[in-house]
C-alpha cells in the first residue's frame, strides 16, 4: 500500500478513512495502521517529499526578496508551507464583521503533512488545571478527562516524535516520565541573561520543549515501550528511527527537515505507517461532506479530486476528521451531521498573542560565535502567577508563557534595519560599525496565552459564498473578552520589566491590551468548534472525539478541545489522537463499530 | 489609481519642474515595467525551492540605466568598502533593490512608491546643488545631501519626505548586503554550519555579558 490514485482507492475496502495528514491525521493513521487497521488517508493538498524539497542551508540571498514573507509565502520564501497561508487562492472565507478587532484570519496549508511541515515544534503538555478550568475559576468548560487520563499518551507521543526538554516540577507544568525527554540544547547568551535578570523579578526561566532530536532516538528501547507485544510494529519503528538523524544545529526548522531531525507528519508519522502496508494516501482529495448510511451512521465521505474536479465517494467502517479544527467544522456543517447539540462551529479559540522587543547594550559587540542551536526556544518562561491569579490579584483569568529569542541568528531583511532609534541615523563606515555593534543585541518576547471560549466566537456556513470546488465556505464571528485583553496588557508590562532588568531599551512603548493583542487566527492555534464533553446536549463528542450522534464518526484534530491552555496545542492534539485511535481499535476488535 | 501611484507622479512632476535640464522621461523607470508591475504575478504559492533564483527571474526589473547609476552611488554611500568588506553594489545589492521595488506584493509596491520618487529627488537635488548627476559628484558633495536626510527625526521639514526615503533605502541596502555571504561574514554571523554538537556560548561571551 502507498500513494494511490482516487480510482484505485475507489476499488478497495478500508477500515478507516482519515481526512487530513497533519499532526492529528498522521498520529491517528500511525496508531491505527501499526495495529493492523487498513486506513485510507485523504489529503486536500499535493504530495510533498521533505527529503527532496527542503531548502537546507540556503541563505536569504539565494531567494527572491531575500526570502521575506509575502502574501504567497507568509512565513518567507524558504518556509515549508505550500499552497497555504491566511489566504488560499480559490478557497475564501468570510468575516461577519468589518471591524478588524472582530475579524478572524484562517490559516490553511494544502500539502501532505499540513502545517506540521512548518510549525514551531513547541511541545508543551497541558497541566492538571488545564483540564478542569471551570472548576478552578468558573469560566469556560471542564474537559471530560483529566491530566491523568492523557499523561501516558503524552509520554508515548514524546517518545515517538522526539521532544527535548527538562523536568522542573513546576506548578501545572507536568514532568514527563523518566527517560522520555531528550536533552535540551545549551542556552544562548541572551537566554542566560534573560534567565539571570528574570530571577530578580521572580519569573522562572527553564529549558523549552520542542520536537527536535538533540540526540538520535533510542531505537532499541523506545519501540518496545511504544508497541508492547506488537513485534511487527516494533521492527518497523526500530528501522525507521534509525533513519532519523539528530539535529546538526543549522537551518531553521520552519523549512522542514530533510534529515528528519524534527517532527513533521511527513517525516515521522507517515513513513512507518506506510511501512506497515496498511496505509493508502490519496492527495489532492478535497473532502466535501460525510455520507450517511441508512442506519444513521457514517458511510464514508465524498471528495473532489483537486486536479480533475471529479467527485469520488469512498466508504469505510469508521470515518475520522483530522482536517484541522475549522476544516473539520466546515465538513460537519456542510454534511448536516453530528449537530443535534447545535454546538458545531461554536467556541472557536486561538491563542492570545502579544509581542514586545528591545535592545540590550550588554549584548552588543559580542565575541563572534555560532548561536544557531536548534533554532527556537532553548529556554522559555512557563506561566508562574497561578496563586496570584487564583487570589484575584491580576484582573484576568488564565495564564500565558513567554517564548523569547535573541542572539546572532541568520541575517534576514530585518538585520541592521531601523537602527535610527539607536544611532540617530548614520551611513557610510559609521553605519557598518553600527551594524556590527547592534547585530545580535536585540531580544524579543512573544507572550502566548490562554483564550477562554465564549459565545461570540463561532463559525457558520456562509449562505452565499462557495469555494472553487463549489463547497460552501465558513463565515467567522470573533470577539475577545476582557480576560484576553488584560492578559495581553500584562504580557507587555512584564516583558518591559524584564528588558528593564536587563538594562535594555524598548523598541516601542508597552501597549494596552486591545492594541497589543494579535488578531484572532494569527497565532495559528485555532481549536474548538466541535468540543468534547460529558453531556451530549452541550458538546459534539465524547473524550475520544467520538461524535455523540454518529458512533463511527470521530474527530481527532483540535476541534474537540474545550479549552485552549497557553501550552501550544499540537502535542495535546497528538496525545488525544493516539488515545482516540486506540479506542477505535478496541471498538473495531469488539465488533462495536 | 492608488494614492501611492499619485504621489509617485507628483514627485516626478515636482522633480522635473525644479530641474528643467533633467529629462524625466530618460530618467523614469521603463514605463512598461511600471504598468506591468501593477498586474504582474508573483512566484505563486508553490515556487520551486530547489532552483536557483536571481533578480529578474520571477518578475521583470524596473530601473533604467540612469536610475541604476543613482542607486549604485547611494548604496555605496550607505555601505562603502572598508577594511572588513567591499561596497554594497559589488555584491548584488543594486539588483536586489531593483527586484524588491519591482515585486508585485503590497509591501514592495508601497516601498516602490517611496524609492522611485526618492531616487528622482536625489538626482534633482544633486543637479540643483552641483549641476551634476548624483553618481558624478564627489564624496563631500554626496555627503552634503545625505547629511540633510540621513535622520528622519532631525531632518528639516523641507527634507522630511526625502529623509523617509533615505531611511527606507538604507534598510533595503542593509538587508540586501547583510544577507549575502560577504555581508554575513562582515556582521559576524558564524552559523549555518553543520555541527556534531552545539556547545553554547564561549566563556568570553559569557564574561562580556556578566554571566561568568
Short key terms for the protein model shown above:
heterodimer, A: alpha/beta, FAD/NAD(P)-binding domain, 6-stranded antiparallel sheet, 18 helices, 17% strand, B: 212 residues, 57% helix, disordered N terminus
**Oligomeric status:** heterodimer
Structural class of chain A: alpha/beta
Intertermini distance of chain A: 24 Å
What's the level 1 CATH class of the largest domain in chain A?
Alpha Beta
**Most extensive interface between two protein chains, with residue counts:** A-B, 77 and 73 residues
Q: What is the approximate shape of chain A?
A: globular
Question: What is the topology?
Answer:
The complex is a heterodimer of chains A (593) and B (212).
Chain A: H1 6-10, E1 14-19, H2 23-34, E2 39-42, H3 50-53, E3 84-85, E4 94-95, E5 108-109, H4 128-131, H5 133-137, H6 147-161, H7 189-200, E6 206-207, H8 222-226, H9 231-242, H10 265-268, H11 270-275, E7 279-282, E8 285-292, E9 298-305, E10 311-321, H12 325-335, E11 352-359, E12 379-381, H13 386-390, E13 400-406, H14 420-423, H15 429-438, E14 442-449, E15 458-466, E16 472-477, H16 482-501, E17 505-506, H17 513-516, E18 546-547, E19 550-555, H18 570-589
Parallel strand pairs in A: 1-2, 1-10, 2-7, 4-16, 10-19
Antiparallel strand pairs in A: 3-5, 6-12, 8-9, 9-10, 11-14, 11-17, 12-13, 13-14, 15-16, 18-19
Helix pairs in contact in A: 2-18, 6-18
Chain B: H1 3-18, H2 24-27, H3 31-39, H4 65-78, H5 93-102, H6 106-130, H7 139-149, H8 160-178, H9 181-187, H10 203-208
Helix pairs in contact in B: 1-6, 4-5, 5-8, 6-8
Would you mind describing this structure in some detail?
The complex is a heterodimer of chains A (593) and B (212). The longest helix of chain A is centred in the C-terminal third of the chain and has 20 residues, at 482-501. Chain A starts with 5 loop residues before the first helix and ends with a helix. In chain A, helix 2 (23-34) runs parallel beside helix 18. Chain A has 593 residues and is an alpha/beta fold. In chain A, strands 1, 2, 7, 8, 9, 10, 18 and 19 form an eight-stranded mixed beta sheet that branches. A six-stranded antiparallel beta sheet of chain A has the order 6-12-13-14-11-17. Chain A is built from 18 helices and 19 strands. Chain A folds into two domains: 1-53 and 69-163 and 210-351 and 453-479 and 525-593, 3-Layer(bba) Sandwich (FAD/NAD(P)-binding domain), CATH 3.50.50.60; 168-208 and 352-449 and 481-516. The radius of gyration of chain A is 23 Å and the shape is globular. Chain A has helices at residues 6-10, 23-34, 50-53, 128-131, 133-137, 147-161, 189-200, 222-226, 231-242, 265-268, 270-275, 325-335, 386-390, 420-423, 429-438, 482-501, 513-516, 570-589, and strands at 14-19, 39-42, 84-85, 94-95, 108-109, 206-207, 279-282, 285-292, 298-305, 311-321, 352-359, 379-381, 400-406, 442-449, 458-466, 472-477, 505-506, 546-547, 550-555. Chain B has 212 residues and is mostly helical. Chain B has one domain (3-39, 55-208). Chain B has ten helices and no strands. In chain B, helix 6 crosses helix 8. The chains are: A alpha/beta (593), B mainly alpha (212). At the A-B interface, strand 3, helix 7 and helix 15 of A face helix 5, helix 6, helix 8, helix 9 and helix 10 of B.
Amino acid at each position: 500500500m502507498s500513494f494511490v490514485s482516487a480510482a484505485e482507492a475507489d476499488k478497495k475496502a478500508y477500515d478507516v478513512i482519515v481526512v487530513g495528514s497533519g499532526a492529528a491525521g498522521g498520529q491517528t493513521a500511525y496508531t491505527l495502521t501499526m495495529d493492523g487497521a487498513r486506513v485510507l488517508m485523504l489529503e486536500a493538498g499535493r504530495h510533498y517529499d521533505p527529503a527532496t524539497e527542503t531548502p537546507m542551508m540556503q541563505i536569504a540571498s539565494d531567494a527572491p526578496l531575500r526570502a521575506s514573507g509575502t502574501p504567497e509565502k507568509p512565513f518567507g520564501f524558504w518556509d515549508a508551507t505550500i499552497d497555504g497561508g491566511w489566504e488560499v487562492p480559490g478557497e475564501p472565507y468570510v468575516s461577519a464583521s468589518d471591524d478588524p478587532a472582530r475579524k478572524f484570519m484562517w490559516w490553511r496549508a494544502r500539502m501532505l503533512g499540513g502545517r506540521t511541515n512548518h510549525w514551531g515544534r513547541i511541545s508543551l503538555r497541558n497541566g492538571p488545571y488545564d483540564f478542569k478550568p471551570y472548576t478552578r475559576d468558573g469560566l469556560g468548560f471542564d474537559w471530560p478527562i483529566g491530566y491523568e487520563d492523557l499523561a501516558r499518551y503524552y509520554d508515548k507521543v514524546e517518545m515517538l516524535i522526539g521532544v527535548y526538554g527538562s523536568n522542573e516540577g513546576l506548578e501545572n507544568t507536568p514532568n514527563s516520565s523518566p527517560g522520555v525527554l531528550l536533552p535540551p540544547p545549551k542556552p544562548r547568551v541572551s537566554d542566560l541573561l534573560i534567565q539571570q535578570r528574570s530571577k530578580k523579578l521572580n519569573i522562572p526561566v527553564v529549558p523549552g520543549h520542542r520536537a527536535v532530536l538533540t540526540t538520535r532516538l533510542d531505537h532499541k528501547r523506545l519501540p518496545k515501550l511504544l508497541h508492547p507485544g506488537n513485534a511487527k510494529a516494533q521492527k518497523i519503528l526500530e528501522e525507521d528511527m534509525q533513519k532519523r538523524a539528530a539535529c546538526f544545529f543549522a537551518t531553521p526548522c520552519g523549512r522542514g527537515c530533510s534529515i528528519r531531525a524534527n517532527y513533521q507528519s511527513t517525516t515521522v508519522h507517515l513513513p512507518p505507517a506506510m511501512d506497515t502496508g496498511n496505509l493508502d494516501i490519496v492527495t489532492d482529495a478535497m473532502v466535501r461532506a460525510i455520507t450517511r448510511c441508512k442506519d444513521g451512521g457514517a458511510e464514508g465521505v465524498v471528495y473532489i479530486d483537486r486536479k480533475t474536479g471529479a467527485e469520488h465517494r469512498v466508504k469505510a467502517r469508521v470515518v475520522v476528521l483530522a482536517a484541522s479544527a475549522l476544516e473539520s467544522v466546515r465538513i460537519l456543517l456542510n454534511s448536516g451531521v453530528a449537530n443535534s447539540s447545535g454546538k458545531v462551529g461554536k467556541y472557536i479559540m486561538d491563542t492570545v498573542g502579544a509581542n514586545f522587543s528591545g535592545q540590550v547594550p550588554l549584548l552588543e559587540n559580542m565575541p563572534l560565535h555560532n548561536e544557531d542551536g536548534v533554532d527556537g526556544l532553548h529556554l522559555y518562561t512557563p506561566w508562574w502567577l497561578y496563586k496570584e491569579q487564583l487570589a484575584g490579584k491580576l484582573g484576568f483569568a488564565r495564564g500565558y508563557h513567554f517564548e523569547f529569542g535573541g542572539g546572532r541568528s541568520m541575517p534576514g531583511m530585518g538585520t541592521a534595519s531601523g537602527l535610527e532609534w539607536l544611532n540617530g541615523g548614520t551611513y557610510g563606515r559609521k553605519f557598518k560599525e553600527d551594524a556590527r555593534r547592534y547585530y545580535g543585541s536585540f531580544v524579543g518576547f512573544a507572550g502566548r496565552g490562554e483564550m477562554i471560549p465564549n459565545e461570540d466566537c463561532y463559525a457558520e456556513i456562509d449562505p452565499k459564498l462557495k469555494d472553487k470546488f463549489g463547497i460552501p465556505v465558513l463565515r467567522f464571528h470573533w470577539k475577545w473578552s476582557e480576560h484576553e485583553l488584560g492578559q495581553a496588557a500584562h504580557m507587555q508590562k512584564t516583558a518591559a520589566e524584564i528588558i528593564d532588568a536587563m538594562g535594555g531599551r524598548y523598541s516601542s512603548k508597552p501597549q494596552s491590551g486591545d492594541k497589543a493583542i494579535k488578531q484572532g487566527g494569527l497565532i495559528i492555534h485555532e481549536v474548538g468548534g466541535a468540543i468534547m464533553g460529558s453531556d451530549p446536549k452541550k458538546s459534539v463528542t465524547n473524550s475520544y472525539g467520538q461524535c455523540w450522534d454518529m458512533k463511527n464518526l470521530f474527530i481527532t484534530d483540535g476541534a474537540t478541545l474545550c479549552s485552549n491552555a497557553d501550552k501550544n496545542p499540537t502535542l495535546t492534539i497528538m496525545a488525544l489522537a493516539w488515545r482516540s485511535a486506540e479506542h477505535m481499535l478496541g471498538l473495531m476488535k469488539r465488533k462495536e463499530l | 489609481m492608488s494614492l501611492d501611484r499619485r504621489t509617485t507622479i507628483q514627485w516626478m512632476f515636482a522633480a522635473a519642474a525644479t530641474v528643467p535640464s533633467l529629462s524625466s522621461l530618460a530618467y523614469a523607470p521603463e514605463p512598461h515595467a511600471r504598468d506591468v508591475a501593477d498586474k504582474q504575478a508573483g512566484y505563486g504559492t508553490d515556487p520551486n525551492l530547489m532552483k536557483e533564483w536571481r533578480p529578474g527571474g520571477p518578475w521583470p526589473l524596473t530601473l533604467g540605466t540612469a536610475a541604476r547609476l543613482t542607486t549604485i552611488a547611494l548604496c555605496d554611500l550607505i555601505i562603502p568598502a572598508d577594511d572588513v568588506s567591499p561596497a554594497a553594489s559589488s555584491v548584488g545589492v543594486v539588483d536586489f533593490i531593483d527586484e524588491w521595488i519591482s515585486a508585485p506584493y503590497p509591501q514592495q509596491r508601497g516601498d516602490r512608491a517611496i524609492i522611485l520618487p526618492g531616487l528622482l529627488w536625489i538626482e534633482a537635488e544633486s543637479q540643483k546643488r552641483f549641476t551634476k548627476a548624483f553618481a558624478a559628484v564627489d564624496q563631500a558633495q554626496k555627503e552634503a545631501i545625505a547629511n540633510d536626510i540621513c535622520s528622519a527625526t532631525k531632518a528639516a521639514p523641507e527634507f522630511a519626505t526625502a529623509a523617509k526615503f533615505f531611511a527606507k533605502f538604507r534598510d533595503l541596502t542593509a538587508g540586501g548586503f547583510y544577507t549575502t555571504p560577504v555581508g554575513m561574514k562582515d556582521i559576524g554571523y558564524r552559523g549555518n554550519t553543520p555541527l556534531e554538537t552545539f556547545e553554547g556560548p564561549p566563556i568570553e561571551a559569557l564574561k562580556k555579558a556578566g554571566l561568568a
